[in-house]
Amino acid sequence: METQFDIARTAVLAIDFQKECIDPEGVWPIYNKSDLLVNARTALKACRAAGLPIIYTQHWLDPRGTDALRYEPLRNGRPTHSVAGDPMAELHDDVAPEASDIVIRKQRWTGFFGTNLELVLRKMDASHLIMMGVWSEACFETTVWDAIWRDYRITIIRDACSTATELMHMTAILDLANWLYGGSIMRAGELAKALSGKSFKAWHFESPATFPYTIESVRPMYDSLG
């Protein structure tokens, strides 16, 4: 299968790969740290080898809570997560950005709200985004929706995304698949094949609401996504 996107107009978004959102001692650990980091490294390595620009987002709140959500829980006036200067709010060492990468700090779940992300992508003349990150149903999903509203074609690397539980992750990806107009979903290993010109497997969007899942059918439907 050939890639369905223009490499010259492709950029990579790596959403909130922060220690506190991945490690067991973090405020919001994911369910599969080891697998997530392996797959994210595979995807990022393939993207770098293909010469694609890589943009990281990082949730980053003033310690005084001055830029937190109005109704966000605080502890003694301090945000409970993503506090500027806190070592746990830093991007994870295993998938850390390189010198040529771009890091965009944000104060809301989506990477587009109140940031210069759209300006950066416009400068790159990007029309297609390869996306991965955490948490699947929160910062990752809201950033995907905002990219769709802006008419980007999206490729989701589903095994380089994660959240608290496998069920939460699977349903988030299926929700996106149901409305991922023009988009694709694949695994990190398949992305590496695609970017190196090899045959690869991926799921491609054809029509809305393809996956009307039930609790019994979540896994087989999810497994069908590339």
Features:
7-stranded mixed sheet; Rossmann fold; single chain; 6 helices; two-stranded antiparallel sheet; globular; 226 residues; alpha/beta
What does this structure look like?
This protein is 29% helix and 19% strand. The protein has 226 residues and is an alpha/beta fold. Helix 4 links the parallel strand 7 (153-162) and strand 8. Helix 1 (33-49) runs parallel beside helix 5 (188-195) and helix 3 packs parallel to helix 4. The chain starts with 9 loop residues before the first strand and ends with a helix. The relative contact order is 0.18. The model has no long low-confidence stretch (mean pLDDT 96).
Q: Taking Cα atoms only, what radius of gyration do you get, to the nearest Å?
A: 17 Å
Major β-sheet, in short?
A: 7 strands, mixed
Label the CATH architecture: 3-Layer(aba) Sandwich
Q: How many distinct domains? A: 1
**Structural class by sheet pairing and helices:** alpha/beta
Summarize the structure in short.
The chain is α/β, with parallel strands linked by helices and 226 residues long. It is built from 6 helices and 9 strands.
How is the topology of this model organized?
Elements: E1 10-15, H1 33-49, E2 54-59, E3 74-75, E4 78-79, E5 102-106, H2 117-124, E6 128-134, H3 136-149, E7 153-162, H4 166-178, E8 184-186, H5 188-195, E9 203-204, H6 218-223
Helix pairs in contact: 1-5, 3-4
